[in-house]
Write a structure and sequence with these properties.
Elements (H helix, E strand, L loop, with lengths): L1 E3 L66 E6 L7 E5 L2 E5 L19 H14 L9 H13 L1 E2 L5 E2 L14 H17 L1 H16 L13 E3 L2 E5 L8 E5 L12 H4 L10 H8 L4 E7 L10 H14 L9 H6 L1 E2 L2 E6 L2 H17 L4 E6 L2 H6 L16 E4 L2 E4 L4 E4 L12 H8 L8
Parallel strand pairs: 1-7
Antiparallel strand pairs: 2-3, 3-4, 5-6, 8-9, 10-12, 10-13, 11-12, 14-15, 15-16
Length: 438
Protein backbone atom coordinates (compact mmCIF):
# COMPACT_ATOMS: atom_id res chain seq x y z
CA UNK A 1 0.00 0.00 0.00
CA UNK A 2 1.18 3.51 -0.84
CA UNK A 3 0.81 6.45 1.55
CA UNK A 4 -0.17 9.77 0.00
CA UNK A 5 -0.66 13.14 1.65
CA UNK A 6 -2.38 16.10 -0.02
CA UNK A 7 -0.42 19.29 0.66
CA UNK A 8 -0.98 22.98 -0.07
CA UNK A 9 0.70 24.54 -3.05
CA UNK A 10 4.29 24.82 -1.90
CA UNK A 11 5.41 28.42 -1.95
CA UNK A 12 -19.84 16.90 32.50
CA UNK A 13 -21.19 16.60 35.17
CA UNK A 14 -19.06 14.78 37.92
CA UNK A 15 -19.67 11.05 38.16
CA UNK A 16 -23.31 10.22 37.34
CA UNK A 17 -25.59 10.46 40.35
CA UNK A 18 -28.00 7.60 39.54
CA UNK A 19 -31.03 7.69 41.79
CA UNK A 20 -31.67 4.61 43.92
CA UNK A 21 -34.57 3.88 46.27
CA UNK A 22 -33.31 2.67 49.65
CA UNK A 23 -35.47 -0.19 51.01
CA UNK A 24 -35.72 -0.32 54.81
CA UNK A 25 -37.75 -2.43 57.27
CA UNK A 26 -41.17 -1.01 58.11
CA UNK A 27 -41.12 1.41 61.01
CA UNK A 28 -37.30 1.72 61.11
CA UNK A 29 -35.31 4.60 59.68
CA UNK A 30 -31.78 4.58 61.03
CA UNK A 31 -30.90 7.71 59.07
CA UNK A 32 -33.43 9.82 60.98
CA UNK A 33 -32.67 8.57 64.48
CA UNK A 34 -30.30 11.42 65.35
CA UNK A 35 -31.84 14.13 63.18
CA UNK A 36 -33.91 16.83 64.88
CA UNK A 37 -37.43 16.88 63.45
CA UNK A 38 -38.37 19.94 61.44
CA UNK A 39 -41.64 21.65 62.29
CA UNK A 40 -44.59 20.84 60.04
CA UNK A 41 -45.81 24.12 58.53
CA UNK A 42 -49.37 24.69 57.28
CA UNK A 43 -49.07 23.66 53.62
CA UNK A 44 -52.60 22.48 52.74
CA UNK A 45 -51.69 21.55 49.15
CA UNK A 46 -49.33 18.79 50.31
CA UNK A 47 -51.07 17.40 53.43
CA UNK A 48 -52.67 14.47 51.59
CA UNK A 49 -49.50 13.48 49.72
CA UNK A 50 -47.19 10.58 50.54
CA UNK A 51 -43.84 12.35 50.75
CA UNK A 52 -40.63 10.55 49.91
CA UNK A 53 -39.25 11.89 53.21
CA UNK A 54 -41.67 13.52 55.67
CA UNK A 55 -38.78 15.12 57.58
CA UNK A 56 -37.79 17.17 54.48
CA UNK A 57 -34.12 16.07 54.73
CA UNK A 58 -31.98 15.83 51.58
CA UNK A 59 -30.15 12.53 51.22
CA UNK A 60 -28.89 12.58 47.59
CA UNK A 61 -27.99 15.22 45.02
CA UNK A 62 -29.10 14.18 41.54
CA UNK A 63 -27.53 15.62 38.40
CA UNK A 64 -29.81 17.26 35.84
CA UNK A 65 -28.78 14.67 33.25
CA UNK A 66 -30.46 11.99 35.40
CA UNK A 67 -33.64 13.83 36.44
CA UNK A 68 -35.70 12.42 33.56
CA UNK A 69 -35.26 8.93 35.01
CA UNK A 70 -37.05 9.71 38.28
CA UNK A 71 -39.75 12.33 37.51
CA UNK A 72 -43.39 11.24 37.19
CA UNK A 73 -46.54 13.13 36.17
CA UNK A 74 -47.89 15.35 38.94
CA UNK A 75 -47.09 18.88 40.12
CA UNK A 76 -48.80 20.88 42.90
CA UNK A 77 -48.32 24.55 43.70
CA UNK A 78 -49.41 26.46 46.80
CA UNK A 79 -49.36 30.09 47.91
CA UNK A 80 -46.39 32.38 47.37
CA UNK A 81 -43.54 31.48 49.68
CA UNK A 82 -44.49 27.79 49.93
CA UNK A 83 -42.74 24.92 48.14
CA UNK A 84 -44.04 23.03 45.13
CA UNK A 85 -44.63 19.29 45.24
CA UNK A 86 -43.38 17.04 42.40
CA UNK A 87 -44.20 13.35 42.01
CA UNK A 88 -41.16 11.03 41.57
CA UNK A 89 -40.35 7.34 41.68
CA UNK A 90 -39.48 7.82 45.37
CA UNK A 91 -42.75 9.54 46.23
CA UNK A 92 -43.64 13.22 46.33
CA UNK A 93 -40.72 15.63 46.91
CA UNK A 94 -40.78 19.32 47.80
CA UNK A 95 -38.82 22.06 46.05
CA UNK A 96 -38.82 25.82 46.04
CA UNK A 97 -39.16 28.45 48.81
CA UNK A 98 -40.11 27.65 52.38
CA UNK A 99 -39.95 31.06 54.01
CA UNK A 100 -42.12 30.19 57.01
CA UNK A 101 -39.90 27.39 58.33
CA UNK A 102 -38.63 28.21 61.84
CA UNK A 103 -35.42 26.17 61.54
CA UNK A 104 -32.85 26.61 58.78
CA UNK A 105 -30.26 23.97 57.77
CA UNK A 106 -26.97 24.54 59.59
CA UNK A 107 -24.66 22.93 57.03
CA UNK A 108 -24.60 21.54 53.52
CA UNK A 109 -22.34 18.63 52.53
CA UNK A 110 -21.33 18.13 48.89
CA UNK A 111 -19.10 15.69 47.01
CA UNK A 112 -16.98 16.71 44.02
CA UNK A 113 -15.29 14.00 41.98
CA UNK A 114 -12.30 15.18 39.89
CA UNK A 115 -11.54 12.29 37.55
CA UNK A 116 -8.77 14.24 35.78
CA UNK A 117 -6.91 14.71 39.05
CA UNK A 118 -7.26 11.00 39.83
CA UNK A 119 -5.73 10.08 36.49
CA UNK A 120 -2.84 12.49 37.05
CA UNK A 121 -2.07 11.05 40.47
CA UNK A 122 -2.18 7.51 39.07
CA UNK A 123 0.29 8.43 36.32
CA UNK A 124 2.48 10.19 38.88
CA UNK A 125 2.85 6.99 40.91
CA UNK A 126 3.24 4.80 37.83
CA UNK A 127 6.40 6.74 36.97
CA UNK A 128 7.88 5.73 40.34
CA UNK A 129 7.57 2.00 39.65
CA UNK A 130 9.71 -0.23 37.47
CA UNK A 131 8.04 -1.51 34.34
CA UNK A 132 7.32 -5.25 34.54
CA UNK A 133 8.91 -7.52 31.99
CA UNK A 134 6.52 -7.87 29.08
CA UNK A 135 6.17 -10.91 26.86
CA UNK A 136 5.30 -10.42 23.22
CA UNK A 137 1.73 -11.01 22.11
CA UNK A 138 1.06 -13.12 18.98
CA UNK A 139 0.45 -9.92 16.99
CA UNK A 140 3.73 -8.40 18.20
CA UNK A 141 5.60 -11.57 17.25
CA UNK A 142 4.01 -11.45 13.79
CA UNK A 143 4.99 -7.79 13.42
CA UNK A 144 8.60 -8.52 14.39
CA UNK A 145 8.86 -11.44 12.00
CA UNK A 146 7.36 -9.41 9.15
CA UNK A 147 9.93 -6.64 9.54
CA UNK A 148 12.82 -9.09 9.87
CA UNK A 149 11.77 -10.77 6.63
CA UNK A 150 10.93 -7.69 4.55
CA UNK A 151 13.33 -4.92 5.63
CA UNK A 152 15.74 -3.96 2.85
CA UNK A 153 18.55 -1.49 2.43
CA UNK A 154 18.64 0.95 -0.45
CA UNK A 155 21.75 1.89 -2.40
CA UNK A 156 22.16 5.07 -0.34
CA UNK A 157 22.15 3.08 2.91
CA UNK A 158 18.61 3.95 4.00
CA UNK A 159 16.39 1.19 5.34
CA UNK A 160 13.18 0.36 3.49
CA UNK A 161 10.56 -1.02 5.87
CA UNK A 162 7.10 -2.29 5.08
CA UNK A 163 4.03 -1.07 6.94
CA UNK A 164 2.89 -3.91 9.23
CA UNK A 165 -0.67 -4.12 7.92
CA UNK A 166 -3.29 -6.45 9.31
CA UNK A 167 -4.79 -8.66 6.62
CA UNK A 168 -8.34 -8.52 8.00
CA UNK A 169 -8.84 -4.72 8.21
CA UNK A 170 -9.74 -2.94 4.93
CA UNK A 171 -9.35 0.82 4.49
CA UNK A 172 -10.80 1.68 1.05
CA UNK A 173 -11.47 5.29 -0.09
CA UNK A 174 -9.77 8.03 1.94
CA UNK A 175 -8.95 10.91 -0.42
CA UNK A 176 -12.11 12.97 0.28
CA UNK A 177 -11.31 13.14 4.00
CA UNK A 178 -7.74 14.25 3.28
CA UNK A 179 -9.03 16.99 0.96
CA UNK A 180 -11.41 18.31 3.62
CA UNK A 181 -8.57 18.37 6.17
CA UNK A 182 -6.45 20.41 3.73
CA UNK A 183 -9.30 22.88 3.19
CA UNK A 184 -9.53 23.42 6.96
CA UNK A 185 -5.81 24.15 7.07
CA UNK A 186 -6.15 26.61 4.20
CA UNK A 187 -8.70 28.57 6.23
CA UNK A 188 -6.05 28.94 8.93
CA UNK A 189 -3.50 29.96 6.30
CA UNK A 190 -5.80 32.76 5.14
CA UNK A 191 -5.60 34.42 8.56
CA UNK A 192 -2.02 33.46 9.46
CA UNK A 193 0.44 34.05 6.62
CA UNK A 194 3.44 33.11 8.78
CA UNK A 195 1.87 29.73 9.50
CA UNK A 196 1.38 29.21 5.77
CA UNK A 197 5.04 30.03 5.03
CA UNK A 198 6.31 27.75 7.80
CA UNK A 199 4.00 24.95 6.69
CA UNK A 200 5.16 25.13 3.09
CA UNK A 201 8.79 25.25 4.23
CA UNK A 202 8.29 22.11 6.31
CA UNK A 203 6.76 20.29 3.36
CA UNK A 204 9.55 21.44 1.06
CA UNK A 205 12.09 20.02 3.50
CA UNK A 206 10.35 16.64 3.35
CA UNK A 207 10.68 16.75 -0.42
CA UNK A 208 14.34 17.82 -0.29
CA UNK A 209 15.17 15.06 2.20
CA UNK A 210 13.51 12.44 0.02
CA UNK A 211 10.83 11.70 2.61
CA UNK A 212 8.03 12.76 0.27
CA UNK A 213 7.42 12.89 -3.47
CA UNK A 214 4.56 13.96 -5.73
CA UNK A 215 1.77 11.41 -6.03
CA UNK A 216 0.60 10.00 -9.32
CA UNK A 217 -2.94 9.58 -10.57
CA UNK A 218 -5.76 9.19 -8.06
CA UNK A 219 -6.20 5.56 -7.07
CA UNK A 220 -8.23 3.56 -4.55
CA UNK A 221 -5.19 1.41 -3.74
CA UNK A 222 -3.50 4.21 -1.81
CA UNK A 223 -4.21 5.82 1.54
CA UNK A 224 -4.44 9.62 1.56
CA UNK A 225 -3.40 10.81 5.00
CA UNK A 226 -4.87 13.99 6.55
CA UNK A 227 -2.42 16.35 8.23
CA UNK A 228 -2.39 19.54 10.32
CA UNK A 229 0.02 21.97 11.95
CA UNK A 230 1.33 21.67 15.50
CA UNK A 231 3.14 24.79 16.74
CA UNK A 232 5.54 24.38 19.68
CA UNK A 233 6.96 27.72 20.79
CA UNK A 234 9.38 26.13 23.32
CA UNK A 235 11.18 24.06 20.68
CA UNK A 236 14.89 24.77 20.26
CA UNK A 237 14.80 24.41 16.48
CA UNK A 238 11.59 23.66 14.61
CA UNK A 239 8.67 25.67 15.98
CA UNK A 240 6.19 23.97 13.66
CA UNK A 241 5.66 20.30 12.97
CA UNK A 242 3.23 18.63 10.63
CA UNK A 243 1.22 15.90 12.37
CA UNK A 244 -0.31 13.23 10.14
CA UNK A 245 -3.73 12.06 11.31
CA UNK A 246 -3.66 8.35 10.53
CA UNK A 247 -6.46 7.82 13.09
CA UNK A 248 -9.09 9.49 10.91
CA UNK A 249 -11.84 6.84 10.61
CA UNK A 250 -14.11 8.41 7.99
CA UNK A 251 -12.99 6.28 5.09
CA UNK A 252 -15.54 4.32 3.07
CA UNK A 253 -14.81 1.24 5.20
CA UNK A 254 -15.14 3.01 8.55
CA UNK A 255 -11.53 2.15 9.43
CA UNK A 256 -8.46 4.35 9.78
CA UNK A 257 -4.92 3.53 8.77
CA UNK A 258 -4.00 3.04 12.43
CA UNK A 259 -6.83 0.51 12.76
CA UNK A 260 -5.18 -1.51 10.01
CA UNK A 261 -1.63 -1.31 11.42
CA UNK A 262 0.07 -3.55 13.92
CA UNK A 263 1.71 -1.32 16.53
CA UNK A 264 4.55 -3.68 17.33
CA UNK A 265 6.31 -4.24 20.66
CA UNK A 266 8.14 -1.51 22.56
CA UNK A 267 11.82 -2.05 21.82
CA UNK A 268 13.50 0.98 23.39
CA UNK A 269 14.73 0.98 26.98
CA UNK A 270 12.66 2.70 29.65
CA UNK A 271 13.37 6.36 30.38
CA UNK A 272 14.48 5.71 33.95
CA UNK A 273 17.29 3.39 32.86
CA UNK A 274 18.44 5.72 30.09
CA UNK A 275 18.64 8.78 32.37
CA UNK A 276 20.35 6.90 35.21
CA UNK A 277 22.96 5.50 32.81
CA UNK A 278 23.42 8.97 31.30
CA UNK A 279 24.39 10.33 34.74
CA UNK A 280 27.08 7.67 35.24
CA UNK A 281 29.29 9.24 32.56
CA UNK A 282 31.83 11.90 33.41
CA UNK A 283 31.08 13.65 30.13
CA UNK A 284 27.60 13.62 28.64
CA UNK A 285 26.44 13.94 25.05
CA UNK A 286 22.92 14.39 23.71
CA UNK A 287 21.40 14.84 20.25
CA UNK A 288 18.34 13.79 18.30
CA UNK A 289 17.70 12.35 14.86
CA UNK A 290 16.14 14.71 12.35
CA UNK A 291 12.61 13.80 11.15
CA UNK A 292 12.86 10.12 11.97
CA UNK A 293 9.15 9.58 12.72
CA UNK A 294 5.93 10.24 10.84
CA UNK A 295 3.93 11.75 13.69
CA UNK A 296 0.47 10.24 14.08
CA UNK A 297 1.12 6.80 12.55
CA UNK A 298 0.67 3.97 15.06
CA UNK A 299 3.58 1.85 13.84
CA UNK A 300 6.03 4.75 13.31
CA UNK A 301 7.71 4.36 16.69
CA UNK A 302 8.35 0.65 16.24
CA UNK A 303 9.59 1.06 12.67
CA UNK A 304 12.02 3.81 13.70
CA UNK A 305 13.49 1.87 16.63
CA UNK A 306 13.65 -1.32 14.55
CA UNK A 307 15.66 0.53 11.91
CA UNK A 308 18.09 1.81 14.57
CA UNK A 309 18.57 -1.73 15.84
CA UNK A 310 19.21 -2.91 12.28
CA UNK A 311 21.83 -0.17 11.95
CA UNK A 312 23.52 -1.58 15.06
CA UNK A 313 23.75 -4.99 13.38
CA UNK A 314 25.21 -3.50 10.20
CA UNK A 315 27.91 -1.27 11.72
CA UNK A 316 30.79 -3.50 10.68
CA UNK A 317 33.81 -4.64 12.67
CA UNK A 318 35.46 -1.21 12.64
CA UNK A 319 32.63 0.37 14.64
CA UNK A 320 31.52 -2.45 16.93
CA UNK A 321 32.26 -0.21 19.90
CA UNK A 322 29.31 2.07 19.15
CA UNK A 323 26.77 -0.63 18.24
CA UNK A 324 25.49 -0.76 21.82
CA UNK A 325 24.70 2.97 21.74
CA UNK A 326 21.94 2.36 19.19
CA UNK A 327 20.15 -0.24 21.33
CA UNK A 328 20.94 1.13 24.78
CA UNK A 329 21.18 4.95 24.70
CA UNK A 330 18.34 5.96 22.37
CA UNK A 331 14.80 6.74 23.45
CA UNK A 332 12.98 7.01 20.14
CA UNK A 333 14.95 9.74 18.34
CA UNK A 334 16.69 11.15 21.44
CA UNK A 335 20.30 10.13 22.12
CA UNK A 336 21.68 10.36 25.67
CA UNK A 337 25.13 8.87 26.00
CA UNK A 338 28.59 9.75 27.25
CA UNK A 339 32.10 8.70 28.19
CA UNK A 340 34.50 8.95 31.13
CA UNK A 341 37.18 10.74 29.09
CA UNK A 342 37.28 13.65 26.68
CA UNK A 343 39.05 11.58 24.06
CA UNK A 344 36.48 8.79 24.40
CA UNK A 345 33.61 11.26 24.07
CA UNK A 346 35.10 12.92 20.98
CA UNK A 347 35.62 9.54 19.33
CA UNK A 348 32.13 8.41 20.32
CA UNK A 349 30.48 11.48 18.85
CA UNK A 350 32.35 11.16 15.56
CA UNK A 351 31.70 7.42 15.17
CA UNK A 352 27.99 7.57 16.07
CA UNK A 353 27.37 10.47 13.69
CA UNK A 354 29.25 8.72 10.87
CA UNK A 355 27.58 5.32 11.25
CA UNK A 356 24.08 6.81 11.44
CA UNK A 357 24.71 9.08 8.46
CA UNK A 358 25.51 5.99 6.37
CA UNK A 359 21.97 4.77 7.11
CA UNK A 360 20.33 8.10 6.31
CA UNK A 361 19.95 9.24 9.93
CA UNK A 362 21.11 12.80 10.54
CA UNK A 363 21.89 13.80 14.14
CA UNK A 364 21.30 17.41 15.16
CA UNK A 365 20.89 19.61 18.25
CA UNK A 366 24.11 18.34 19.76
CA UNK A 367 24.90 19.37 23.34
CA UNK A 368 27.62 18.37 25.79
CA UNK A 369 29.27 19.43 29.03
CA UNK A 370 32.68 18.87 27.40
CA UNK A 371 33.91 22.29 26.26
CA UNK A 372 36.56 21.05 23.76
CA UNK A 373 33.96 18.88 21.99
CA UNK A 374 31.42 21.71 22.08
CA UNK A 375 33.78 23.82 20.02
CA UNK A 376 34.40 21.05 17.47
CA UNK A 377 30.86 19.85 16.74
CA UNK A 378 29.81 21.03 13.28
CA UNK A 379 26.35 22.32 12.47
CA UNK A 380 25.11 19.13 10.87
CA UNK A 381 21.66 20.60 10.09
CA UNK A 382 20.80 23.93 8.51
CA UNK A 383 17.90 24.29 10.94
CA UNK A 384 20.25 24.51 13.95
CA UNK A 385 21.02 28.21 14.39
CA UNK A 386 23.04 27.73 17.58
CA UNK A 387 24.43 24.84 19.57
CA UNK A 388 22.58 25.37 22.83
CA UNK A 389 18.94 26.26 23.21
CA UNK A 390 17.90 28.80 25.85
CA UNK A 391 21.46 29.80 26.71
CA UNK A 392 23.19 26.96 28.51
CA UNK A 393 20.06 24.88 29.18
CA UNK A 394 19.11 21.87 27.09
CA UNK A 395 15.66 20.33 27.46
CA UNK A 396 15.73 16.56 27.09
CA UNK A 397 13.01 14.05 27.96
CA UNK A 398 11.21 16.32 30.41
CA UNK A 399 14.34 17.57 32.20
CA UNK A 400 16.61 20.58 31.85
CA UNK A 401 20.35 19.93 31.56
CA UNK A 402 22.58 22.81 32.65
CA UNK A 403 25.63 21.93 30.60
CA UNK A 404 27.99 24.48 32.20
CA UNK A 405 27.40 23.20 35.73
CA UNK A 406 26.48 19.67 34.58
CA UNK A 407 23.24 19.62 36.54
CA UNK A 408 19.81 18.20 35.78
CA UNK A 409 16.78 20.14 36.96
CA UNK A 410 13.05 19.82 36.56
CA UNK A 411 10.89 22.21 34.57
CA UNK A 412 8.02 23.30 36.82
CA UNK A 413 5.09 25.45 35.75
CA UNK A 414 2.80 25.85 38.75
CA UNK A 415 -0.17 28.14 39.11
CA UNK A 416 -0.51 30.77 41.82
CA UNK A 417 -1.28 29.36 45.23
CA UNK A 418 -4.95 29.55 46.27
CA UNK A 419 -5.99 31.40 49.40
CA UNK A 420 -6.51 28.10 51.18
CA UNK A 421 -4.11 25.17 50.64
CA UNK A 422 -6.22 22.02 50.42
CA UNK A 423 -5.25 18.41 49.87
CA UNK A 424 -6.74 18.58 46.39
CA UNK A 425 -4.74 21.69 45.48
CA UNK A 426 -1.53 20.07 46.73
CA UNK A 427 -2.13 16.83 44.80
CA UNK A 428 -3.04 18.77 41.67
CA UNK A 429 0.23 20.74 41.68
CA UNK A 430 2.43 17.78 42.66
CA UNK A 431 1.02 15.64 39.86
CA UNK A 432 2.10 18.26 37.29
CA UNK A 433 5.76 17.83 38.23
CA UNK A 434 7.54 15.42 35.90
CA UNK A 435 10.43 13.97 37.91
CA UNK A 436 11.39 10.76 36.15
CA UNK A 437 14.32 10.05 38.47
CA UNK A 438 12.16 10.39 41.57
Amino acid sequence: MSLFIIVPHLSTTPSHAVARKFQQPTGINRYKRNKPALPTPPWPHVLDLSLADPSFAVYILIGMDEVDKILLNGLRKGQHGTPMAQNTVFGWVLLGNATNLQRQPKSITTLHCDTQLTERVNKFWELEGLRPRKHYTPEELTCEQLLDDTTERANDGRYIVRLPLKKSVPICESRSIAVRALLRMEKRFATDKQLYRDYCKFMEELVDLGHMELAGAVTDDAYYMPHHAVVKHSSATTKLRVAFNASMKKTSSGNSLNDALMVGPQLERDLFSILVRFRTHRYGLIADIEKIVTYGVASASHLAVKSLHRAALDVGDAYKGVAGVFTRDFYMDDLLTGSDSMHGLITLQKDVAFVLSRSGFELRKWATNCQPLRERIPHVSKQVLHLLAEGNKIRTLGSVWHTDKDLLSIAVNLQELPDQITKRAFLSDSSKTFDLLG
